[in-house]
Automatic annotation (TrEMBL):
Protein function: Reversible hydration of carbon dioxide.
Source organism of this protein record: Exidia glandulosa HHB12029
Protein's name in the database: Carbonic anhydrase
InterPro entries: Alpha_CA_prokaryot-like, CA_dom, CA_dom_sf, Carbonic_anhydrase_a-class, Carbonic_anhydrase_a-class_CS
Cofactor(s) this protein cannot do without: Zn(2+)
EC top class, as a word: lyase
Superkingdom of origin: Eukaryota
UniProt feature coiled coil, ranges: none
Length: 311
């Protein structure tokens, strides 16, 4: 595996500082947020509210939406080495940290992810606070998303969960990504990062025994499905310095979409709409499509309703 990673790294970039590529410019121009009427409950309606022809309806109709709660008693991790990730290191001043208003994002890096015979090119990395994915219902203070795109435009995203730590040697990758954080405290500003070394993180992604994969979506509009997710379920203990976290949180505020139904389960907004309209959502017991990564209290409640209605 080490040999494979070295080979990948050579393909990506012989001299890191000379092979930067510009960020994808097909950015979403419609405005969305995380609070009140701009928040995730109403994302699907934002295009029509602005007379846009964009289609965000999968945010409220899709049945493979992200993020989810990963229940480790039912979703088994991939065998270590299933995924190979390499991201080129860069010198100080060579990568850009941008405040997009909805997240803090690093652009201008090169990398690849290989999985199941597919190769995906690195696009950007960005952050969410608190974490979007949860493990056995628990959330984490910060989640980093590394976004990769295949030649056929399909996406693979890795979610890396961070736990707060009191270590005297805080993780250098996070420290250097946010080196000039104070310069991007306002939306639509950018600055440079310190030197970024991804080798420890990519080594962990490749060797960890707790990498969870599922078929989901973008966690922001347009909520596009068919995204191959890889969530590093073992929190990076001692990884995130408390003071740095507080500073990052002060800039990003809150940008986590609520947990979606498990893959294949009916979209929770559809379920809520039907409950609101009809008082109950039951047509027949066979309509119930709860998957293993579902909220079991709700399943129990729902089954009880079924037994009452159909008894
Ligand atoms: C959208 O179109 C309607 C009808 O043409 C118009 O009344 C409304 O002001 C428009 N809204 C925006 C945000 O442009
Ligand atoms: C970064 O900010 C500067 C202004 O400070 C602006 O000219 C430049 O276009 C920005 N770059 C990106 C990639 O947004
Ligand atoms: C890699 O994972 C180990 C636990 O398996 C953890 O202690 C370490 O902090 C991780 N390192 C990085 C750079 O993520
Ligand atoms: C992933 O889910 C989408 C629906 O959102 C489906 O079209 C696609 O076939 C699924 N892919 C895999 C590999 O299961
Ligand atoms: C809820 O109402 C819709 C619209 O009238 C109807 O199509 C659907 O069958 C109803 N669902 C139930 C469970 O009664």
């Amino acid at each position: 595996m080490v040999a494979l990673l070295v080979a990948l790294a050579l393909v990506i970039c012989a001299a890191a500082a000379t092979c930067l590529h510009p960020r994808d410019t097909t950015a979403v121009s419609l405005h969305f947020g995380y609070s009140r009427e701009e928040g995730p409950l109403t994302w699907a309606g934002i295009p029509s509210a602005h007379n846009s022809s964009a289609d965000w309806s999968v945010c409220r109709l899709g049945r493979h939406q992200s993020p989810i709660v990963i229940y480790t008693d039912t979703l088994k991790p991939l065998p270590p080495g299933s995924v190979a990730v390499a991201i080129s290191n860069v010198d100080a001043g060579k990568a850009l940290l941008e405040n997009l208003g909805t997240t803090l994002e690093v652009a201008g890096l090169m990398g690849v992810l290989k999985y199941g015979g597919m190769g995906y090119d690195f696009q950007q990395l960005h952050f969410h606070t608190p974490s979007e994915h949860r493990i056995d219902d628990e959330y984490f203070p910060l989640e980093m998303h590394l976004v990769f795109k295949a030649p056929d435009a399909s996406l693979a995203v890795t979610g890396v969960l961070f736990q707060l730590g009191t270590s005297t040697t805080p993780n250098p990758l996070l420290t250097n990504i946010f080196l000039n954080l104070a310069l991007v405290s306002n939306p639509h500003t950018n600055t440079t990062t310190g030197a970024l070394d991804f080798s420890a993180l990519t080594h962990n992604l490749t060797t960890t025994p707790s990498l969870f994969s599922y078929n989901g979506s973008l966690t922001t509009p347009p909520c596009t499905e068919g995204v191959a997710w890889f969530v590093l379920g073992e929190p990076q203990t001692g990884y995130l310095d408390v003071e740095l976290y507080n500073a990052v949180k002060g800039v990003m505020k809150f940008n986590a979409r609520y947990s979606q139904n498990g893959p294949g389960g009916v979209n929770l907004l559809e379920l809520a709409r039907e409950i609101g309209n009809n008082g109950t959502v039951l047509t027949s017991p066979t309509d119930i499509r709860f998957t293993s990564v579902q909220n079991w209290n709700f399943v129990k409640f729902y089954r009880r309703l079924v037994s009452i209605v159909y008894s």
